[in-house]
Amino acid sequence: MDVDLCFVLDCTGSMKPHIAAAKDCILQVSNKCKLLNPNIKLRIGFCGYRDHQNGSDRLQIFDFTDQYEEFKKYLQGVSAIYNEDYPEDVFGGLNAAITRLNWRNGTRILFHIGDYPPHGSQFHDFRDDYPNGDPYGLTAESVLEKMQSENILYFFGKITHFTEKMLQKFRSIIGEFPTFDLVGDDPIKLIDKFFKSASSSITMAVSLTSSIGSGSKDIYDLQRKKLEMDLNEPDWNKLPLQTGVIMRYILPKNLVELKDLKYFNKSNLVSESFSFKIATKPFSAGTERCAYYAINTKKSPIEKMVMKEYHRIGKGNPFEKYLEAVEISIVSYFLSIKFNSIAERNKIHKVNFINAKLIRTGTVGPNTQYYTIEPKLQDAEYKRFNSNSGVIVEFHPTLEAFAHYTYQYTKGYLVVYDLQGIELTDQYVLTDPAIHCVDALRFGRTNFGERGIKQCFLENHKCNDVCKKLKLKNIDTINKGQKCNIL
């Protein structure tokens, strides 16, 4: 996975501590990539901006390189310059980064860090030498639309509240985007914040482009969907009661049934009637699906649920698409039971998957609506621990060992990855995994087949202490062609 990361940095006087932090964190970022995600090949570029009165010092540009010591040495020569008014040449800096650097890799990240907005009275209430906006005619629309056309993903490091109007304008053009808290001037804390935010921008971008593709239309369509979300649970008394049919597979008994395509046949579905209420707007949107708050009204007391809907199905049968999701869920659930039976004996945290089901509303026909449905997770921080592209977002030895276990238990047939959910005291509770399988026709478009197993897992995995406790075969040995055995 090849990544271009460009830092676009306000280099005026008030940014002096943040310039210093950027200089000191870059080697940490590259070293973390090498350690956790050796399959990520990173190039780093830089565009510093000041203001129009600074003449030849208005912009400083360093094109992409994979020579990190050279990059750090260049940054040593970047200094902060004080100006007379607060607004800065933000659009000039962004435009230069987009048009003058040699972007060439599939995943493209522009990480913008600044404490004041661009020129133009619509962005602030300060005195402004250019109240009508950029003197060269650059606008938020022209710059950001060019960024979209180049398939560049935008991230922002927020330092003050003075950029809020700018961010609102940007969101109205490109949709939602990640912002990171870079407030403060303590040098040690700032370096840590820079390191974490830059590392997160890389893993988030790689996860996004590997799941949805690098085409700007699909990515920015998803970001616009996020603007339409409602994070709050609705007033259930104001929503209508609906009915439907829930369908699920019976848990496989063994590996033979798990591998048997005939086992996951429509005739093996168990169904029952269901009554529920669902929010009108989603509270979350991922690369493939959006999630809605819901309640199961058949239970007493009422059970809180989450219903998930695909953004787009394409020309295929929507029923089959949702069945794939349920099949992924039950297979992962089965493997977690097997894993936990061994983990418990070795005093290792359990890995539990929520068992999602399919719900059909209305009568069967062209207007039938489908969802997956599952119990709502406890109120804890939801995290993505790794992605189906092989990127480790947050390293947890137990979860990496679980993925290794699924590969070994199934004798190299599949690996469960894209692990996300919550971490509790003695267990992980996960949902929405992906499965890479040698049978490329199973498990939907997030299954990258044998290539996924090899490039996204085998080439990236480093056996840890949990792997050793579980007596899993060393991945290096497996890569040399030795067969896996069921534990």
UniProtKB/TrEMBL annotation:
An example Pfam family from this entry, by short name, is: Alpha_kinase
For this protein, the record's CDD domains field holds:
vWFA
* Keywords, comma-separated and alphabetical: Kinase, Serine/threonine-protein kinase, Transferase
Q: Which SUPFAM superfamilies match?
A: Protein kinase-like (PK-like) (SSF56112), vWA-like (SSF53300)
Tell me which domain of life the UniProt entry assigns to the organism this sequence originates from: Eukaryota
Record-level Gene Ontology MF annotations: ATP binding; protein serine/threonine kinase activity
Which named protein is this? Kinase-like domain-containing protein
Organism whose genome encodes this protein? Glomus cerebriforme
